[in-house]
Amino acid sequence: MNFGLLGAGAALGIAALGSAIGIGTSGSATIGAWKRCYLNNKPAPFILTVFAGAPLTQTIYGYLVMMFMMNSQKEPWYLLGLGVFAGLAMAFSAIAQGKAGAAGSDALAETGKGFSQYITVVGLCETVALFVMVFSLISV
Length: 140
Prior knowledge:
The chain is mostly helical. Helices cover 84% and strands 0% of the residues. It has 5 helices and no strands.
């Protein structure tokens, strides 16, 4: 068994699991926010989809790490560890981003204000995954 390839797959798979959890969290809150808008005869802001979809990018980062790892000549055990821990870090970033996006959706739908502040926090969660991806690519 090639443990390096297993690590490459783990980078993508674990990051994608985090994206799914994050999107589920932020997407549910976005739908709930839209429902409250409809119940109150207020326009439902389409911009809330930004919050709902934000955690998807961690899957792309996991894919990029996987592709670089598949061509690496590094020690297979190193690649396995890198893939698992990079995937976990990206997954937790996506989960945190989903929670922040859920709060942003709720707040923006209720007040109609603060989009730039809310998306900044969502972006901070994203930065963790970006750092993990870049540092992983450098170390491969």
